[in-house]
């Protein structure tokens, strides 16, 4: 029987090419790959009579081997844009990469071959900040947002024709879009005007849900929080989080919102490390939910923090006690947030994301031009990889392959796969910090 699992359709050839050096071939013409977590994938082949490789998984299908992470290296550089590349994302099966840039162009890549399948002008008048496929639309419907404040719809027609139209406009830059998991119709946007829009593509209408207002302690000088990021909980799509120019990640429940924009201003919960409450210097540039409903937040001039659902401060953090690390009900020390350190987030609006089918790893770019990868569970820094001559802003993982795409200030996209014959050496964080200081803090000699 010819078996081509859907996760590998369109990418099975390169998939086999990447991992074949790490397989053990035996006399039964099978190749077995053992991960460090004792998960096993057996590939039966070679392909015959038009049939592809046959895949048999055992134990936990979805665990990403740390050995593969340690072997990540640049597989290909995609370099057709004429400006900084601000966004990369994948279609549902991982076969197409979409990118957006300061050149206002959208490009659809066959990343395996390094070829542009299609490109078109976004219709935006300024830098494109995000571009995503809508699910279950046969990769024919996309949404974008940009520095001009617009949220736009792009529909790919037959004959390579693309129709674009504006859905809504923020008063200020629109940084991020969040798509309801599994929905071909529903999405949200946030912007520096503090506004959160809700869209239904069936009617192509936008509803202004609310403006994110600062809490009382900052309302005099920061009445509106300038939003940089929005994310939806994949395990509970009614919950979404927003964050921006203050220290709080706010989580809302769409079921508690009115559709006239006059309510929903109060969050269901808020998250912030206790030592950052009241810090007027920090903000949040990136958010991501894990498949366990954990919330990841990347702070400016600070670190990345992972919050579990029970670490919230409630709807009114002004009433929280930031100096206390004890649970007032039990007197026991509360569990602290997991922290990820070593990167630098000061110069740009950076994203943050999980990596691996079980969100086993955390990834971020840095002002030093590197890609950082940590173990989610304990915060151990596994990899620091050169990804840009200046700054890495965006890292996205392929939904089915052990692969990352990264972009930043340079005009290209880096594709990372486990192609190294030897695993990387342990990260020396002192060397990373010293290298950063030498690169950015030493005076130039004339």
TrEMBL record:
Keywords: Repeat, WD repeat
Pfam families per UniProt: WD40
WD repeats: 78-110
Chain positions covered by the region annotation Disordered: 315-336
PROSITE patterns associated with the record: WD_REPEATS_2, WD_REPEATS_REGION
Protein's UniProt keywords contain Lyase: no
Coiled coil residues, start to end: none
Domain of life: Eukaryota
Transmembrane segments: none
Bias type Polar residues, positions: 320-336
Protein name, per record: Uncharacterized protein
Source organism of the structure: Platanthera guangdongensis
């Amino acid at each position: 029987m010819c078996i081509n699992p859907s996760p590998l359709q369109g990418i099975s050839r390169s998939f086999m090419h990447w991992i074949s050096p790490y397989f053990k071939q035996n006399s039964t013409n099978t190749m077995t790959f053992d991960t460090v977590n004792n998960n096993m994938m057996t590939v039966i082949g070679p392909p015959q009579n038009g049939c592809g490789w046959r895949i048999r998984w055992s134990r936990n299908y979805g665990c990403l081997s740390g050995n593969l992470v340690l072997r990540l290296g640049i597989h290909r550089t995609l370099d057709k844009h004429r400006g900084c590349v601000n966004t990369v994302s994948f279609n549902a099966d991982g076969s197409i990469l979409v990118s957006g840039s300061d050149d206002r162009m959208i490009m659809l890549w066959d990343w395996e071959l390094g070829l542009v399948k299609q490109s078109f002008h976004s219709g935006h008048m300024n830098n494109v900040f995000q571009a995503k496929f809508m699910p279950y639309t046969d990769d024919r419907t996309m949404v974008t947002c940009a520095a001009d404040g617009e949220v736009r719809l792009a529909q790919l027609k037959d004959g390579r024709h693309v129709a674009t139209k504006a859905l809504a406009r923020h008063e200020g830059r629109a940084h991020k879009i969040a798509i309801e998991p599994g929905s071909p119709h529903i999405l949200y946007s946030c912007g520096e005007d503090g506004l959160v829009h809700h869209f239904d593509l069936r009617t192509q209408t936008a509803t202004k849900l609310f403006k994110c207002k600062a809490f009382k302690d900052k309302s005099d000088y920061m009445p509106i929080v300038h939003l940089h990021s929005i994310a939806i909980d994949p395990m509970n799509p009614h919950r979404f989080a927003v964050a921006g120019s203050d220290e709080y990640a706010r989580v809302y429940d769409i079921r508690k919102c009115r559709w006239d924009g006059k309510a929903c201003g109060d969050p269901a919960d808020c998250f912030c490390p206790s030592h950052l409450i009241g810090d007027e210097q920090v903000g949040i540039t990136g958010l991501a939910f894990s498949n366990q409903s954990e919330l990841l937040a990347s702070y400016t001039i600070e670190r990345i923090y992972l919050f579990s659902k029970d670490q919230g401060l409630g709807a009114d953090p002004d009433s929280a006690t930031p100096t206390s690390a004890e649970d007032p009900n039990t007197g026991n020390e509360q569990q602290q947030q997991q922290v990820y350190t070593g990167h630098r987030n000061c110069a740009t609006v950076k994203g943050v994301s999980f990596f691996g089918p079980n969100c086993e790893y955390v990834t971020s770019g840095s002002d030093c031009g590197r890609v950082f990868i940590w173990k989610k569970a304990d915060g151990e820094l596994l990899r620091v990889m050169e990804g840009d001559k200046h700054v890495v802003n965006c890292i996205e993982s392929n939904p089915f392959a052990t692969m990352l795409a990264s972009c930043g200030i340079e005009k290209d996209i880096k594709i990372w796969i486990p192609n190294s014959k030897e695993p990387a050496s342990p990260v020396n964080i002192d060397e990373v910090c010293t290298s950063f200081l030498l690169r950015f803090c030493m005076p130039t000699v004339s």
